[in-house]
Every structure is written in C-alpha cells, then in structure tokens.
Amino acid sequence: MEKPAIHLTPIHPACGHVHAEPRSGRAGLWIQGLFLFTAVLFFILWGRREGFQTFSIIFSSIVLEAFPFMLLGALIGGLIEVFAPREKIANLLPNRPVLTIFLAAGLGLIFPVCECAIVPVVRRLVKKGLPLGAAVAYLLGGPIVNPLAAASTLAAYGMMWKVAMIRLFLGFAIASAAGILMDMFFTREQAILPENHVGCDGCHGSHDGGGFFHRLRAGLVHGAEDFFDIGRFLIIGAFVAALMQTMISRDLFAAAVGVPVFSILLMMVLAVVLSLCSEADAFVAASFRFTGMPFSAQMAFMVLGPMLDIKLVLMYLSLFKKRAIITLSALTAALVFFSLLVMEYVSL
Amino acid sequence: MRSTIHILEKWFAARLLPWVLIAWVLAYGWLLEQDRYLAFLQPRFAGLMYMGLIIAGLFALAAVSAGRGERAHGSSHMQWIRAGFLLLPILFIIGAHNTGLGGFALSKRALGTSMPGKSLKQKIERDDPSLWTMDIKDLPPVEQEEKPVILSKLLRNWEDYEGGEVLTEGMYYAPEDAPEGLGMVFRFYITCCAADAVPVGVFVKGKGLESLKNDQWVRVRGVCGKEDVMGRKLPTLTLKEVQILPAPDVNEQYLYF
C-alpha cells in the first residue's frame, strides 16, 4: 500500500500566510550571510590565536550543551503537533486565564524543560492554541521552576535550601507576572508571528489520517524542520555570548560590589551576556560570593539567566513579533530588578 | 547555463536538511569516539551526546524518507543560510577539540584580582623577603609515585593543609604585572561545559619562577600559607619543589563538579 505523503507547502491554505522567510527579507538574508561569511573568515585567519581558540572552545561548548536539548525540544514539539489534538489541549486548560498562567509558570516542576528546549515546545503549543500569557509564563518559568535548577542551586550553595526556594519562588512569581502583563498589553495576533497562529501549521492536517508510524514520521519531520528553522538563532546567540565571554573580564563585574543597585544591574547584564544554562549559572553566581557581591545580585543573575539571555532572545524571533520581544525582555528585566531590589532592602 | 545552475542550486537547497542532520550525526559519533567531547563538556554529559546522536539520526531518517522537494520552507538562499549556520559549529568543534582553556581564559574569569589603578605588584605586600629565595633551578624533581592533591580539594580544605607541605599540579600563569617570584597554579572547574568553567588556583612564590612559561603544566610542592593580596589573605604556596609536566590530554585537563 502506498504511504500517504507528508506535504509541507510554503503557503498554508487555512491562514494564507507565506511560510517562506517569514521574518527575514532580503536585508535579513544578507545580514545572516555576512555574519556566516565573517565567522568562517575569522576562523581561517585567527584559528591559531590563543584568544580565538578560547572563543572556539566556549562557542563549541555552548552549542554542544544546548543542541541535544534543542533537538529534544524539537522532537517533543513535533510529537505534540501530530499526537496532541487542539481540542484535547484546550480541554486540559483551566477556564480562567489567570489560573492557566499560574499553572504554566509552575509546569516545569512536573515537565522540566531547559531554556534551549522550551522554545520549540512552546512554539508548537502556541500553534495548538495555548494562550499568550500561559505561553510566556511557561517560556520564562519552565527553565527555572524545575527540580534540576533547584538541585543545582542547592549543590552550588552548599545545600542552602533558602537560596533554592527563593530562586524558584522568584522564578514562578516573575514568570506569572510577565504572563499576566503580556496578556494585558498584547492580543495573540499582536504578539505572535503569523506562521505560529492557531490552524497555521502548514500541514493541511495530513496527519489526521495514516497509522501510528506515519504520524510518528510526520512528527519527526516537523521536529527536524523546527530544528532547521530555529537552530541558527541559537547558534548566533551562542556565537555572540562566546564573543562576550572571551572579551569581557568577569572581574569588572566583581569590582562593583559596593552599591547593591549597581551590583544587581551588573549581574543582570552578565546573565544576559554569558547565556549559561539554568543548571550551570548557580555555580557561576556562587563563585561571586567570595568577592563580596551582595546576595540579591547573585540571585538576580540566577533568576534572570534562564529567562533572558542573548540566545533566548534570538530564539524568540521564531515565535514572537519584534515589538513583543522588546516588551517581554524589558518587562522581565524590570520585574527581576525591582524584585531583587525589594529583597535587598528587606534583607531576606 | 545560468538556469541550469539555478535549477541545481534549488535542487540541492531543497535537500539540505537531511545532509545537515547527517553531518551532526557524524559529528556526535566523532565526539563520542575517544571521549573527544570532554574537551567541551563534563563526563556525565555523555548521555546527552548519545541523546543528540539518536534524535539527529531519527530526524535524518525521517527527513530522507519524507519525500523530495516539498520539504523545504523558504527560498533556496534561506535554506543555504540555515544549513550554513547549523554546520558552522562543526567547523569550530573540529578546530578546537585538541586545545584547552589556558591563561587567556584565566585572565578573563579570575575574580577579585583587579583593583582599579593598582598593579598586582602594588597589591602584594611581601611580609617576609626570605620566603622568596628558593630558586626553582636548584630544586630536586618531584618523585613520580607520589599522588598530588587535586587543586579543588586543596582549596576546599585549605585550613587543614595550612602550615604543612603539599604536592599539587596544574597550569602555571603569571600575570604581566606580577612581581618577580610570584605566579599562580590553576585549573578550570567545570559544572556543565567549558563556558561555565571557573578557575581554581593558588598563588605560588619562589625565586626563578620567571623561567616557567604561562600555560605550562607543573607539579609543585610547597608550604601552604596565606599571603596578603589586595587586602585579602589568599592561599599561597611557598615553593619547595617544582617539576614541568607534559600537558595532559585535553579531556584530562579540567576538574569536574
């Protein structure tokens, strides 16, 4: 019997959106091409220099650590696409939007996903009708409100439960608040890219039919395409983060330990720049303890890192419109900053 | 002619996805062979590498079997760009797999060693000049059989070792502005990957350290103490013996959490 073909066409008949190059026009194509060319040129010209070798190691490390998680996220996303009907997901969600947001912010506790895997998963869930606020809450909360992040924080801070609890609580509270605020500021259509809208999966619903293995194959193809589409954002982010790590001395950040406000801000900048995984950043934050860095600033680093960094912001380009990304980034940074400032002055 | 090239370019562009995935399957296989991934990641992440290999393999199989030509979204130029980005890390991984982080990375990652307006020379108060008289050229070589204390263990339990002699090993580094006879022995401590590597090390002092080169692997024996550096008492070894070691394999250079 002939297998039903999996057709993925550039224009979706239901929504009429062109899936081809949704965000990047000719200019974007040129910029990305130039970026790629420059990276290869630098590799050829400076490959043997010590500074460049350090950069290469850091860049490769970030990519190697993130890729399996991203592949896993793409796989989960692909399987959600073919095996989870829209109606089933809608039935699972509570009727009250705020409750959905709280649930999504804490979902990482039972469904832990790191920041590199979460974007493809949320992208697919959004296509299945997950509300904007809940998507934002899971996107921000998933990588931090989870058992792995708690365990790494405990290990880094010598089993200090208070530190791990504060980190998880702040992660949950900030993710929920960001979700609620994004829901207030944007409609789905205003925030989410057209190709991620409900009913715009580009598949003509072809996997409604066919047996298990056909659907599995379709899920894998979806996953592979997500990886192919989003992968470059992760790589550009990892490249920039590695460049920053190679060029900027961490000691500069440790020098500003005197004023908590500046310390918090600087550690937030460092979290964005370093783009570490949520498991590792607790250890880097803990290494600042001996420099006299205020605890609130260390916590700012641990809370913001999994929510907002260079590679994450670039990966958001595959899900949100630019205005929504800017608002979400500013909101997240502001919420982290003010929460930690309050914590500093109430001396938790 | 031009249209033939155009057709070929489009034909190849539409089939790039499986090739990119196959390239990653091969890259994972190569990294897992002889534990090459340890130059970048910590050993407990072997499972992560296998997971990447399996998922990339499944994706490649699915992409190959999913029909031809209809798979790709976007223009052919965009397909080439996407493929180029996904292949870029493989180039860097191959280029960097036999090198490790060294003094350059240390200078960017060490904390608490800078104080605006002061050089390291000014920051160090030499309380007892007689401690600086040992010349490494006169030192007997360290016996091979003795096991060195791992730097991370040494630093964690410094109080227990203080006042006694200890043997340890790591990379040597002397900042440009360090006074004569002062350097550092260090290693990198990795939680997940080299991007989060944190240096752990002790200052070492002894006459003739200038003959050592930065990033050279050394085994040192010295008396554990604390020296006043930048107003803080920092762990310092007063050298008794030193031996230059061949650099270990990259996958043995790091300390892991």
Automatic annotation (TrEMBL), chain A:
Compartments in which it is found: Cell membrane
TM stretches of this protein: 27-46, 58-80, 100-122, 134-158, 164-186, 252-275, 295-317, 324-343
Keywords of this entry: Cell membrane, Membrane, Transmembrane, Transmembrane helix
Primary subcellular site in the record, as a coarse category: membrane
Keyword Repressor: no
Membrane topology: Multi-pass membrane protein
GO cellular component: plasma membrane
Family affiliation: Belongs to the UPF0718 family.
Protein name, as recorded: Permease
Organism in which the protein naturally occurs: Desulfatibacillum alkenivorans DSM 16219
From TrEMBL, chain B:
UniProt entry tagged with the keyword Membrane: yes
Keyword match Transmembrane: yes
Domain DUF1980: 150-256
Entry keyword set: Membrane, Transmembrane, Transmembrane helix
Transmembrane segments: 12-32, 44-64, 85-106
Signal sequence bounds: none
Domain of life of the source: Bacteria
Protein name: TIGR03943 family protein
Originating species: Desulfatibacillum alkenivorans DSM 16219
